[in-house]
Amino acid sequence: VQLQAFGGGLVQAGGSLRLSCAASGRTFSSYVMAWFRQAPGKEREFVARISRSGSSIWYADSVKGRFTISRDNAKNTVYLQMNSLKPEDTAVYYCAADRTNSGDRVSTIDYWGQGTLVTVSS
C-alpha cells in the first residue's frame, strides 16, 4: 500500500484545515487507518484512528472534539478534518495503515505516508 497525504498549509489559530490521504491498491478496506503527527524536536504521536468499516473511531485527548477522522473505502481515501486549530497543533501530519493491530502505535504501523506540514500561527 502506498499512501500520499496532502492538504497541509499555514492557518491562523482558530482556523480549519482538511487533510486527505489517498491509498493505492485494492486492499484499502483491509487496513485500520490512522493519523499521527510529529512536531519539531518531539516524537511522533498518535492523533486519530478509524476502523476498517469506519464504525469505530478513537482520538487522542489533545484533539478530541476538534478533529474528525473519516474514510471513504470506495475512494481509497482517509480524511482528517481539523477545526479550532491551535499553535500546538503545528506538526508534520502522517497518515498510516495498520493491517493487524489497532493503529494507534507507531511500532505496529505497516505503511506510512510521506507527511504533510501543518503550521498554525498565533
Strand content: over 45%
Global structural class: mainly beta
Regions with little confidence, pLDDT below 50 for 5+ residues: none
- What is the end-to-end distance? 37 Å
The profile of the biggest β sheet is: 7 strands, mixed
Helical element count? 0
- Approximately how much helix is present in the residues? under 10%
Sequence of secondary-structure elements? EEEEEEEEEEE
Form type: globular
Number of DSSP-assigned strands: 11
- Write down the overall mean pLDDT: 96
Rg, nearest Å: 13 Å
Description:
The chain is an all-beta fold. Helix content is 0%, strand content 48%. The protein has no helices and eleven strands. The chain has strands spanning 3-6, 9-12, 17-23, 32-38, 45-50, 57-59, 67-72, 77-82, 91-98, 111-112, 116-121. The strands form two sheets. Strands 2, 4, 5, 6, 9, 10 and 11 form a seven-stranded mixed sheet that branches. It has a four-stranded antiparallel sheet with strand order 1-3-8-7, with no helix packed on it. A hairpin with a 6-residue loop joins β5 and β6 (57-59). The chain is globular and about 40 Å long. It starts with a strand and ends with a strand.
